[in-house]
Amino acid sequence: MIDRVLDSRQFDSFDWRFVAVGCAILAVGVLSIYSVTYAQPGGGLPLYVKQLIWILIGGAAFAIMLLFDYHQISRVSYTLYVIVLALLVVVLITGKTSRGAQRWIPVGPFAFQPSEFAKLVLILVLASYYARAPREGWMQRVVLPGLIMMPGLLLILKQPDLGSGLSFLAIYAAMLLVVGVRSKALGIILLFSLMLFPFAWEMMWGSLHDYQRQRIMTFVDPAYDPGGKGYQALQSRIAIGSGELVGKGLYGGTQSQLKFLPEGHTDFVFAVFAEEWGFLGVLVLLALFVGLIILSLEIAYTAKDMLGALLAAGIIAMICFCVVVNIGMTAGMFPIVGIPLPLMSYGGSATVTTMAALGLLLNIKRRRLTLFY
Amino acid sequence: MSERDIPGDELRELQRRLTILKIGLLLVVGLLALRLWHLQIREGPYYRDLSQSNLTRSVVLEPARGLIYDRNGVLLANNVSSFSLYVTLEDVQDHEALVQKLMTLVGLDESRLRKKLSERASKLIPRKIKDRLTLREAAQVESHRLDLPGVMIQAESQRNFPTGRTASHGIGYVGEVSADQLEQADYADLHQGSIVGQYGVEVTYDRFLRGRAGQKLIEADALGHEKRTVSVEKPRAGDDLYLTIDLRLQKLAEELLGDEAGAIVALDPKTGEVLALASRPAFDPNVLSRELTPKQWEEFVQHEGRPLTNRATQGQYPPGSIFKIAMAAAALETKTVEPSTQIRCAGGYQFGRRFYRDWKAGGHGLMNVTQALVHSCDVFFYTAGQRMGIDTIASYAKLFGLGSPTGIELPSERVGIVPSPDWKEKARGEQWLPGETISASIGQGYVTVTPIQMASLTATVANNGVPVRPRLVRAVMDRATGRVLELPSVPLSRLSVKPDTLAIIRSALAGVVTEGTATRAKSSLVSIAGKTGTAQIAALRPGPEKDIPKKLRDHAWFVSYAPVEAPRIAVVILVEHMGHGGSAAAPLAKQMIEAFVKLTPYEPRVVQSGSEAGPILTALQAQETHD
Predict the structure, then answer these.
(1) From the candidates B321, B376, B439, B560, which is the catalytic residue?
(2) pLDDT in tens, A301-328
(3) In a mutagenesis test of the A interface, which of B10, B20, B28, B40 is the best target, namely the one with the most A β-carbons within 10 Å?
(4) Distance, in angstroms, between A176 CA and closest chain B CA?
(5) Are A301 and B39 in contact (CB < 8 Å)?
(6) pLDDT at A188 > cutoff 80
């Protein structure tokens, strides 16, 4: 049943372009982290070395996801989802608190963030669901998957982690769209979301932490600026803008070196990059991301079955959403919600999750030529 | 409808939708690129002006540390404003000229100045070069500011300890956060140069005291001097602490020790509140909170009197005869002796080939356990110890808290040694010798304890076998809300020692003062119970005490509590190299207790001790065993 044999066709289908683009983005990320943290004092492992360790672990996750047939992986998806939900409960009880949110489970010298893994597991669960279910009627197409997503979403919002919560919703929405919400159903959803929006907004606003409200208010009204916190948004814009055409060069980013950007190595790594490499660097980076996503879409397009195509679509949605929202927020187009830039921001859980997702994508491509069994 | 039943069609439908997704994505990325083009190309020069010309500097605004008061609200630690000198390397053109200029204007050590300037940190962030500038120095620098590009004077608050050396071991001192500390999670929100506690409650309660730093964004001119404040995030001062210490008793304790090395601990046996915690020699926290040169540090660390050691919590001494309290409990509990059992003391105890002497040359005659405690008869406890064996002795010593930290909120508390064959095997790789059991029976040999452990033991006996954790902080006042958070006392579970046993020990301890070895502690004001101890530090005694060099003389111990009927204070005295506890330590305890009684006249407690507390405690204990 299991195609353990790696025949030559499978090797041919190992996409080196895909791997090269991914590695290039990873390298740019490490370089930016190195640049922003090299002058910061303090002993221990420098952050860029830690990030390299994460990338090694991510490489292992990539290889593991490549090794097993994705059908096998999808078979344990519900089990994985239950484990992730349990971890999300654990994080609420015993997790490490940072900046008013409880997101991390400390393990030795590191801490991991279950909400990151939860995104990939959600993709697995929803893809398995749609690939198997008869998909008749809006109940089975929309409501049931929504109910599957709900516990994870609520646990994440409880932390509160607005960024991961929005990613969850984006994954769900993207899967709905590709599986084919019939136009009537789509209309109903749109209508309902419009009607529910004021209530949802009220609920969300009430559940937000002060710093989150502040971030949103800063977006809506730049003059709203208690305690100078809104400077994060302005400083990010200054960093990007002052990079101009060719940038200030490595370590030349005065904005990031000045620590005007408190999250220069994590959420605002794009601003650091844009300041140091300018618009030309930004175009190259955007081209890399677009390349990665086009190659991924190709994989989705040529997938041999629904499960493969759905998995690919979910992963693409996850990566696209993070890239667009992260760059958008650093460039002052969206409010600041804590979403890391895939493959570039410092962070173990996010890096490992994204690399595992890429491994899964390549897995789908590898097996498109094998026969059904 | 029917077409959806064929999987292939559905897959094709999905692929069609993927194409739409692709177009949508390219559109969005195009929008992003457009926005970035707008920011970087169209508005680029504007943002460059804002950043590249280095117009703005961020200056950390250090918070004022929380204040520390004694239990009656007397100020023990506050902040005074002073000036600090910062240098922003980015704005310094001539390094050498700056060094020379600063050397002439400000009292600075040249090598340290160079080291500070070459430290690995951002050139754009002002680095602190010197704090506590004199007004004159600050004025000098300000008047030469045109010759000193990149130099900035900032008014900051500095830690100040108005009482000086008083209570310095409990309060502690502050200093720049170390590289090791910055690695810890507790210090994650700090940066190089932040001031944190480094000793005493200053470090254990640093989280409360430290406050939160603010930030000021300034627009600087070409010389790096402030032109305009862009934005200010105000620092938030730390929370205030109210200690359990009573400054009046603390001062008395320190006066009583005078120039002698030693420690005095006074606490409330019911609550564990430490009323006085003195350790001599002491240090001046005002000096240590300044930046010291390595040489000054060396002087402190290598000082013969070891002023940086808190003798109350870190000094480890043989308990001498104080150990007999635990021994008596062990002997009675294990029924090695009955309350009426008498043992003859003829001035010594023959074991094998060695003769273990009693401190009283002619012996005490027939003694029961009460009399043996009152007169501190060694032979009685040699015999009892020999009968029980070292492992039983060790388990009872541990029961009374020896060998473990008391949990007082001070860093690096030491725990002493409860010797046993296992311990000796592990620590020294040697076998236990039978004779060592006999030495241990009177608290000599390998046994060591800290004064705070003895205070805890005394409080436990005074408190009817219920230990409490000694504590130094009574309440924390939250700066943000102004609310005072009273910290509750931490009662521990009652020792598994019969009330009868403790009653016998308590009556014996009262006898020690009325008719035994500590008659010098007898007071006309209040009834006192206690036990003397003499910690031998040299095994052999070649001649009369006055001929022995001082550093080889014995340490004097006295543990006590008062009033005997309803104890309100427990006092432990340890004076190094002062000989007998009865003569050197007991009178000091009497003075402490009398002062306490005069300062705090008896007020009836809401919950009466004795009968009413009894059932509650028993109920609590029953609950614990059920858990």
Answers:
(1) B321
(2) 888 888 888 899 899 989 988 998 899 8
(3) B40
(4) 11
(5) no
(6) no
Find how far residue B2's CA is from the centre of its chain.
Answer: 79
Who has greater pLDDT, A277 or A105? A277
Amino acid letter, residue B493: S
Q: Which two tokens stand for residue B319?
A: 């308990």
User: How far, in Å, are B271, B420, B447 from residue B437 at the CA level?
Assistant: 35, 9, 10
Nearest to B282 by CA among B252, B256, B262, B299: B262
H or E segment and range at residue B182: helix B179-182
Q: What is the pLDDT of residue B102?
A: 84
A281 touches chain B (CB under 8 A): no
In degrees, to the nearest 5, what angle opens at C-alpha A302 toward C-alphas A296 and A307? 85
> Which chain A residue has the Cα nearest residue B32?
A328
Q: Enumerate the residues of chain A whose CB falls inside 8 A of the CB of residue B16.
A: none
Q: What is the DSSP letter of B91?
A: G
| E-only strand ranges, A16-157 | 96-98, 101-107, 110-112
Please list the residues that pair with B233 across neighbouring strands. Answer: B215
Annotation marks residue B321 as catalytic: yes
pLDDT interval class at B245 (50, 70, 90): very high
Average pLDDT over residues B274-280: 94
CATH architecture assignment, domain B56-243: Alpha-Beta Complex (3.90)
Rounded to two decimals, the ipTM of the complex is 0.83
Whole-angstrom distance, CA of residue A132 vs CA of residue A125: 11
Find which of B10, B41, B51, B230 to mutate to test the A interface (most A CBs within 10 Å of its CB).
B51
Interface test with B, best of A130, A135, A141, A258 (most B CBs within 10 A): A258
Across the interface, do B48 and A241 touch by the CB < 8 Å criterion? Answer: yes
What is the DSSP track for A299-346?
HHHH-SSHHHHHHHHHHHHHHHHHHHHHHHHHTTSS-----PPTTTSS
Looking at CA atoms only, how far is residue A259 from chain B in angstroms? 8
Point out the residue among B33, B51, B121 whose CB comes nearest to the CB of A255: B51
Query: What mean pLDDT is reported for chain B?
Result: 83
Q: What are the extents of the domains in chain B? A: 56-243
Q: Is the Cβ pair B51, A254 closer than 8 Å?
A: yes
Task: Give the three-state DSSP class for B320.
Answer: helix
Q: Which residue has the tokens 């130099």?
A: B151
- Give pLDDT tens digits for A145-182: 889 999 999 888 887 777 888 888 888 888 887 776 66
3-state secondary structure of B267: strand
Query: B56–A258: do the CB atoms touch at under 8 Å?
Result: yes
**A180 in Cβ contact with B13 (< 8 Å):** yes
Q: In angstroms, rounded to a whole number, what is the distance separating the alpha carbons of residues B249 and B38? A: 72
Contact A257/B124, CB-based, under 8 Å?
yes
- Enter the tokens of residue B12: 């094709």
Residue B504 CB neighbours (<10 A): 19
Asked if B231 lies within 8 A of A320 by C-beta distance, the reply is no
Q: Are B149 and B214 in contact (CB under 8 A)?
A: no
Which of B21, B54, B120 faces A39 most closely, judged by CB atoms?
A: B120
Q: Quick check: B584 pLDDT over 70?
A: yes
State which of A38-42, B21-25, B521-525, B570-574 shows the largest mean pLDDT. Answer: B570-574
The answer for A364, left when phi > 0, alpha when psi is -120 to 50, beta otherwise, is alpha
Tell me the nearest-neighbour CA distance from B120 into chain A, angstroms.
6
- Output the CA torsion sign for A189, A191, A194, A196: negative
Token representation of residue B268: 């409330």
pLDDT digits (tens, 9 = 90+) for B139-185: 888 888 778 888 888 888 888 999 989 999 999 999 888 888 887 87
